[in-house]
């Protein structure tokens, strides 16, 4: 039996022999489309590896590669690192993460990373709106088209406030955005070409996963330890693949809570310089100056970008943030932002900057950080027998489940007890196996008592773990 015959026997899908004349790659894509429409190929089915199919059809690997790329462009298949090329089917799958709660009316929602509810937010926002509306010059400025980088006055005001928080930036280094997610997407779109690779911790923010996927980027996972991304594993990955950008959360990773020491940050910077990596530091999970390490843009100003947002500090609905970037990259970012939305909304920036400058925001933040510390102490107290990691200023905790418990089952059981959680799967990069862990957000409940009640229900589920039946195969 020759090579082609052996390859054909190993392929679980082959096109029909009587394909129409014309370019082979187009005929292959048309056959794929026909077999998907007829149900011959079901959603999730993995197509034969490219070299195997090339041997089976007696064509070059390049022909198969071109066919698979065209099929992906047409939305027929999906290629994922480590998982091969799979049929997408007729309908798009729902996203694995949500920015709105799925908690029922009577459920204690511990699933979302949001500011702690308090009437003080509404009062301060109302006051800021009144102050802005009373200044004709501010209204005129807000109504006008803004420069791509954002209003110069607002960039200056934001830098002044950030300096009081221990973050020294120059207004010329900032481009204003519509929140942290927009800054993330903007950096990837402007600085990474489709098909290029980006890397992050193997467990990372789902918004980054979604942005990389939407832009057609290869998203590669890097192994971690108690301090986050391991420099030796990043070095090894860079030797194997050409990586354009590394995304990371040094202050505390979402979801694991891992924090990087300054020595670890320097080691990451050294790898980045050797392999010419851009560093995208997500600072949306903001922490107080006493807990903050050295920002990467201070360690490597020539290649480090920094994302800031008020989503966790003031309100997610404000959609106001900023991206700090080296001046030599700003032109790329301006062009990309202009194509997306022309500029950030001037009115939103005016209200936010007024809120920050007034001083009320500082009092609100001090209260929130104090409240979060107390809530994290509750987590440690109630769940102390179990493996929980968190940051004192963190909006969430990461609970590793005892042996025998599966995260998806535990989330379902918690739903039954009136507690809404998120399992580990939405945070997994590529085909990485999901650890048996759940994220517990401490900020959605309006009171500590409500949080304590939710934690007690989780503790009861954990204590009853031996009684939870294992699934049968």
**How many β-strands, per DSSP?**
17
Major sheet attributes: 7 strands, mixed
Helical content class: 40-55%
Number of helices: 17
* Proportion of residues in β-strands: 5-15%
Low-confidence spans: pLDDT under 50, at least 5 residues? 91-95
Shape, per Cα inertia axes: globular
Question: How far apart are the termini?
Answer: 38 Å
Briefly note the structural class of the backbone: alpha/beta
The average pLDDT value, as a whole number, equals 91
Spatial ordering of strands, largest sheet = 4-12-11-10-9-5-6
Question: What's the Cα radius of gyration?
Answer: 25 Å
Structural account:
The structure is a single chain. Helices cover 43% and strands 14% of the residues. With 473 residues, the protein is an alpha/beta fold. It has helices spanning 3-10, 24-38, 50-57, 61-73, 119-133, 136-143, 152-164, 180-191, 206-214, 231-240, 262-274, 296-299, 330-341, 346-358, 360-382, 407-416, 448-463; strands at 77-80, 84-87, 108-109, 174-177, 197-201, 218-222, 224-225, 228-229, 243-248, 278-282, 304-309, 321-324, 387-390, 396-400, 419-420, 422-423, 437-441. It is built from 17 helices and 17 strands.
């Amino acid at each position: 039996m020759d090579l082609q015959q052996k390859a054909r026997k190993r392929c679980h899908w082959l096109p029909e022999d009587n394909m129409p004349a014309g370019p082979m790659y187009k005929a292959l894509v048309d056959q794929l489309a026909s077999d998907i429409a007829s149900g011959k190929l079901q959603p999730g089915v993995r197509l034969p590896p490219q070299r195997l199919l090339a041997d089976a059809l007696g064509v070059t690997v390049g022909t198969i590669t071109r066919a698979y790329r065209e099929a992906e462009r047409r939305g027929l298949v999906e290629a994922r690192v480590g998982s091969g090329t799979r049929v997408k089917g007729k309908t798009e799958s729902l996203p694995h993460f949500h920015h709105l709660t799925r908690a029922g009316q009577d459920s204690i929602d511990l699933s979302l990373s949001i500011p702690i509810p308090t009437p003080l937010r509404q009062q301060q926002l109302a006051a800021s709106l009144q102050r802005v509306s009373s200044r004709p010059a501010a209204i005129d400025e807000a109504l006008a088209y803004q420069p791509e980088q954002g209003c110069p006055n607002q960039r200056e005001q934001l830098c002044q406030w950030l300096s009081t928080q221990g973050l020294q930036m120059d207004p010329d280094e900032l481009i204003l955005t519509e929140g942290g997610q927009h800054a993330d997407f903007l950096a990837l779109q402007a600085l990474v070409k489709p098909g290029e690779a980006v890397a992050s911790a193997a467990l990372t923010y789902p918004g980054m996963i979604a942005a990389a996927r939407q832009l057609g980027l290869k998203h590669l996972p890097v192994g971690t330890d108690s301090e986050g991304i391991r420099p030796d594993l990043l070095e090894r990955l860079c030797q194997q693949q050409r990586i354009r950008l590394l995304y990371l959360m040094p202050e505390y990773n979402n979801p694991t809570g891992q924090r990087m020491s300054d020595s670890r940050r320097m080691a990451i910077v050294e790898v980045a310089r050797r392999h010419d990596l851009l560093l995208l530091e997500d600072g949306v999970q903001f922490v107080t100056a006493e807990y903050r390490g050295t920002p990467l843009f201070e360690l490597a100003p020539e290649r480090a970008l920094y994302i800031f947002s008020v989503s966790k500090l003031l309100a997610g609905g404000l959609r106001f943030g900023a991206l700090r970037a080296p001046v030599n990259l700003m032109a790329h970012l301006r062009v990309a932002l202009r194509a997306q939305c022309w500029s950030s909304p001037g009115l939103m920036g005016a209200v936010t900057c007024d809120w920050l400058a007034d001083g009320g925001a500082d009092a609100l933040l001090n209260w929130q950080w104090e409240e979060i510390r107390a809530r994290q102490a509750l987590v440690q107290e109630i769940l102390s027998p179990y493996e929980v990691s968190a940051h004192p200023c963190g909006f969430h905790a990461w609970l590793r489940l005892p042996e025998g418990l599966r995260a998806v089952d535990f989330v379902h059981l918690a739903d039954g007890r009136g507690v809404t959680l998120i399992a580990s799967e939405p945070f997994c990069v590529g085909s990485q196996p999901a650890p048996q862990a759940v994220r517990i957000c401490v900020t959605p409940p309006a009171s500590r008592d409500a949080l304590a009640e939710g934690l007690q229900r989780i503790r009861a589920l954990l204590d009853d773990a031996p009684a939870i039946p294992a699934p049968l195969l």
